[in-house]
Structure formats: structure tokens, C-alpha cells
């Protein structure tokens, strides 16, 4: 299943934006993927993240806020039909059933995502690792669990997104009553690795400091804590993929 945002001003449709990237930025500045040229819209107003099977809308500290179905949000998991108000413009979130022809002619990435999330852990891991780097040279890092039930286990961070939490779709699992199903995500970029809080009362800590909805850069030997688990982040080498 694919998804898109339909941009409207009053009753007129301005454009449609398929959500195919991991991150879709929304704002007044021209570099945004969804450019809304209106003074009521902040330069970098909000963004949409695709994390596993979820599509998450996040306000980026905008001046006038972001509303979903007339309620102001900071972070919201989008559902089909959600109406997003940004300034004087409306974005409608729409999920679209992919036709058999489209599935055959396109890489089966989105469709496989929904399927593998409910099939096997092996399929989930394969899916999490099939994202391709966006640059020829990318940093390569890993985390090693140093406390908790999985102590000694290490995970190479080779995919563009690695989710942490107690949900079945998370590659790195942590336990705890206040830990979210998808508590945090580590993103791999040409500029390095970053960790961002997604959901749940418990927030992961990096070197003793709680992370937020804004990305925190991970430095070599950083200690990450979440729930019953503590792990060390370390850079391995430069990889050309």
C-alpha cells in the first residue's frame, strides 16, 4: 500500500505528493519537498517520516503549529483521511491500494514492508536492510549491547533506518513499561548517524542526556540507554556501497 498527501488551498487542489522518501519536509522555504509559499507557514514547518509500516507527521517547532483534525500536534501517526492544517493550507493523507500491475512494474518495497512486518523476524531484518545509501561513501557503524538480556550482542547499522523499541517490527528490542513500540530510530546519512525519539514515555538517553524529537548526532563510543538495555555506538570504517 502506498500513500500520498494532497495539498489544498480552500477548495482547490494545488498538488499531490506521493510519500516515497524516508523523510518529506514541509515548509515555506523552496528546498522543502512540499513547498507552501505562505507567511503563516514556517521555513521548515513539519516533516513526514516513514518508519516501518508507520507514517509519522512531526511538527518542527513551527510558529503557528500543525493541526490534525483541528487538534494541535507535535508528533502524530497518520491514518487514512487525516486532515492536516498548516497555515491556511490543508494536506489530506491518503492511502492507496497498489494495483497488481503497479506492484509488478515497481520495486515491491512498500508492499513487502506491510507483509514482512507480520511474517517472520528474518523477513523483517531483510527488509530493514534493503534500503540503499544515498551517497557513494557512507559511514559504517554498529552498536553493541553492554547490559541487559542481550548483553554481548552487536548490530551493524547498515540500513538507512534502524528502529528501537518493544514492538515486533523493531530491529533492536528493549523492554520496559514506558518504552514505546517504536521508541526511537537511528538514521544513517552521508553526514553520520543520528537518533530521534518517536513515541512512548521513556526516551532513550545518549551519554546520560534524554533525546528529543530533534535528531541527536551519535559520536564514536556514545552510550545509548533505553529501558532495560544499554549499548555502545561505535564507528567501524568507511564503506563504499
- Total number of helices: 3
Q: What is the N-to-C succession of helices and strands? A: EEEEEEEEEEEHHHEEEEEEEEEEE
The number of strands is 22
CA radius of gyration is 18 Å
Cα distance spanning the termini: 28 Å
Helix-and-strand structural type: mainly beta
Mean pLDDT: 81
Silhouette: elongated
Taking pLDDT < 50 over at least 5 consecutive residues as the criterion, the unreliable ranges are: 100-136
**Helix content estimate:** under 10%
The largest beta-sheet arranges its strands as: 2-1-11-10-7-8
Strand content: over 45%
Q: Which sheet architecture does the biggest sheet show?
A: 6 strands, antiparallel
Short summary:
Helices cover 9% and strands 46% of the residues. By secondary structure, the protein is mainly beta. The protein has a six-stranded antiparallel sheet, with no helix packed on it. A six-stranded antiparallel sheet has the order 13-12-22-21-18-19, with no helix packed on it. Strands 4-3-5-6-9 form a five-stranded mixed sheet, with no helix packed on it.
List keywords for this structure.
241 residues, mainly beta, six-stranded antiparallel beta sheet, 3 helices, 22 strands, elongated
Describe this structure in words.
α2 (109-116) packs antiparallel against α3. The protein is elongated and about 55 Å long. With 241 residues, the chain is mostly beta strands. The longest helix is centred in the middle third of the chain and has 8 residues, at 109-116. The strands form four sheets. The protein has a six-stranded antiparallel sheet, with no helix packed on it. The chain contains three helices and 22 strands.
Amino acid at each position: 500500500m502506498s500513500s500520498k498527501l494532497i495539498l489544498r488551498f480552500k477548495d482547490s487542489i494545488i498538488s499531490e505528493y506521493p510519500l516515497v522518501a524516508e523523510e518529506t519536509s514541509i515548509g515555506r522555504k523552496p528546498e522543502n519537498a512540499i513547498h507552501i509559499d505562505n507567511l503563516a507557514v514556517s521555513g521548515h514547518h513539519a516533516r513526514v517520516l516513514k518508519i516501518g509500516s508507520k507514517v509519522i507527521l512531526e511538527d518542527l517547532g513551527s510558529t503557528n503549529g500543525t493541526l490534525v483534525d483541528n487538534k494541535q500536534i507535535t508528533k502524530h501517526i497518520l491514518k487514512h483521511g487525516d486532515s492536516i492544517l498548516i497555515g491556511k493550507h490543508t494536506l489530506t493523507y491518503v492511502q492507496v491500494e497498489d494495483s497488481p500491475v503497479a506492484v509488478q512494474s515497481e520495486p515491491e518495497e512498500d508492499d513487502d514492508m506491510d507483509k514482512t512486518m507480520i511474517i517472520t523476524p528474518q523477513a523483517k531484518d531483510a527488509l530493514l536492510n534493503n534500503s540503499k545509501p544515498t551517497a557513494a561513501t557512507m559511514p559504517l557503524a554498529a552498536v553493541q549491547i553492554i547490559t541487559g538480556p542481550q548483553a554481548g550482542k552487536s548490530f551493524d547499522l547498515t540500513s538507512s533506518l534502524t528502529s528501537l523499541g518493544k514492538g515486533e517490527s523493531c530491529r533492536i528490542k528493549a523492554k520496559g513499561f514506558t518504552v514505546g513500540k517504536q521508541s526511537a530510530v537511528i538514521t544513517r546519512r552521508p553526514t553520520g548517524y543520528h537518533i530521534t525519539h518517536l513515541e512512548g514515555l521513556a526516551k532513550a538517553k545518549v551519554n546520560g542526556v534524554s533525546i528529543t524529537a530533534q535528531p541527536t548526532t551519535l559520536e564514536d563510543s556514545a552510550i545509548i540507554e533505553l529501558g532495560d538495555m544499554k549499548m555502545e555506538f561505535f564507528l567501524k570504517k568507511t564503506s563504499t556501497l
